[in-house]
Amino acid sequence: MAPKKKTIRTIPQDRTPMPEQDPQVRATNFAEVACGYTLEDALREAERCLFCPDEPCIRGCPVGIDIPEFILKITEKNFHGAYDTITDTNLLPAICGRVCPQETQCEGVCVVGETLEPVAIGRLERFVGDMAIAEEWESIPYIEPSGRRVAIVGSGPAGMACAADLAKAGCEVTVYEVFHEPGGVLKYGIPDFRLPNEVIDAEIEKLEQLGITFECNTLVGRLFTVEQLLTEMRYDAVFIGTGAGYPSFMGIPGESLAGVLSANELLTRCNLMHAREFPSYDTPLQPGRRVAVIGAGNTAMDAMRVCLRLGAETVYCVYRRTKVEAPARAEEVHHAEEEGIEFYWLTTPVEILGDGENNVRGLRCQRMELGEPDESGRRRPVPVPGDEFEIDVDMVVYAIGTNANPILGQTSSLRLNGRGYIVADDELATSIAGVWAGGDIVTGAATVIEAMGAGRKAAAAMKAYLGLRDSDVVYLPERAGSEGKRFGIDLAEHNYARVSVG
Amino acid sequence: MATHASATGQFEIVRREDFSDVTYLLEISHPLMAKAAKPGQFVIVMEHEHGERIPLTLADFDPDRGTVTLVVQAVGKTTKEMQRRCQEGAHLHALVGPMGIPSHIGHARKVVCVGGGLGVAPVYPQARAYKENGAYVIGVIGFRSRELMFWEDKFRAVCDEFIVCTDDGSMGIKGLVTAGIEEAITHHSDIDELVAIGPPIMMKFCAETTRPHGIKTVVSMNPVMVDGTGMCGGCRIRVGDQVKFACVDGPDFDGHAVDFDDLMARLRRFRASEADALERWQESCRVRAEEELAEARAPAIGTRPAADL
Fold first, then answer.
1. Mutate to test the interface with A, among B221, B229, B258, B274 (most CBs of A within 10 A)
2. pLDDT at residue B99, rounded to an integer
3. Which of A263, A261, A259, A253 lies closest to A350 in space, CA to CA?
């Protein structure tokens, strides 16, 4: 495969660093923190791939991108070819290259990583994706209409990935979105300094080029039901990727005070509604001078860094366990530390203190220590008796997770589990025939790429249900023996006339 | 992008009616929503691309005409700007709904429907639905004064009794809607249910009026929200000892359990920004008006600066 045999000793030893904005500067602007590889950076980093025969990275990727192949094409300076290889399986490289937790996926299993730092696969993917946007490359496969119509509920990562696969299989795909712009959590949740809105719009445009229609301002469940999609609206199949939503609060005193809000509200006001450009945009967002963000997941890190950029003097992270247990990506915690976020590990809020005029003046906290492991295997935090203290803050942001969004449960006969999430089988089929679901609304809060993986998995099952050839399997006549033929047509092609009954 | 509503000509305002210098009606074309809407539900409107998403309770919907109707009070920057810009033929940037759980129109035999301020119009679909369900409907509607009155004929058509309360006594009972409720209770000992829609303080006192009589009281919550789908939690309210999201758990709640003081405190969250936005907008309107005036007064020829020639 590779032009010459490379060994761990002959490749560049150090991982090519990502050019980044200086922490002091970037904490005051919303421009991207990671500036992206230059051409030289990308070529150098691509040389670090050993093109090992085992290819564990492909298995480590939730959507199974042919990683060695696209890296090889980078080394050959065939960037358009690299883009085509990626888009065979993933139409959203500029997004995934930025937000995937590669350290636990492709890069986590990279052979180079056993000795040195793993190949920076995510950065290379982003490099190719960004180049495709800048050069306006299109990678539109020949699509033969299948005559099948599919509705997708939610235009976030799960819906986008599912829509892309079904559109490539020839389905007429409509994606319904409740907000006035498509993108879901990528748009309202992830801030511009991690994933610029222009990148999302550019990749959504590529989906539109595949023939996918985005219908915004549409609340499925209330404007029409999931059942109506299959009956009156005559869709052949439906995928639900509505995400979790419904943020959790702790139920401690003081949560009604002005200046207490969910990370979802903070991020939506800032990212989607442009509150940071108030009054040019009408949506307000009370600026916090001293902010406490409760939680230590990726959303918490985003919320803290947004507060800094909105002008907060001090931003605290309050988390009941330690840095080791923090659910955020290590890179995000590192970025937050660099930008000057102050961390209160082993700390739980017990009361939000008011100033008598309905504003927040402080947060009373309880010191914790780690006890016995709980059911998740992590050591359970337990209070240190008598160790309480106050932090002086004027804004408190909750980023402690979300519960299932209730709307589809209220409006359809979909079977839900005890916590309100949609019940789906191994192939992501729900209790209604013809309806699949995936992403956070099935699993609870997870990552963008896991949602994309679920969208693709559901798409594969939906294609089988609709009697469509799996477009992921490239048809190679030389591999098809006469065994698999009927009337001279390869069975893999499923190339028979389809009759719809009823 | 093709997804921009205004570009595709969606959400056209087909009719506008001004009830007073602050209250105006917008009838908007949206056939699917007109078919799906039920009493008690709300929509979220975004007038322009830089606008806020504001929740408004549906005042009417007509599946035959394919329209939904909103009655808006111009109180803040967004609603005042809408008053200026939302003329017939204009398009809203975004309109999403119907949202929220529809009101439960049960089999109550005698119902009081109370509307005050911005709640007058939204209580109409409820009164109509109860009437259609065979209930005896007593409408209690409050205005500051007679000139602000609207929809009297519509209410009279669906109410068996119709009580108007005005602050200045220029029509009906002089006093607040609670005076009208007291009167209804005095004449009818068998009221099953009361529905109140209006400013929080009004709903609070409606609930206090019915509490001693043990009359089931339903109030409609319309707090600040962003998405309207349960995602931001901005609209959370206290009901009994629980926290509920008005957008997906409501908007209707038991008026005797809602913590109105908490609600009113939370409504003041953005007061400073709101005042700031309104002031800036009014200033920009004033400047623009002056410029237009200056332009109109200027002589027709020779006004261009030399650089332009």
1. B229
2. 94
3. A253
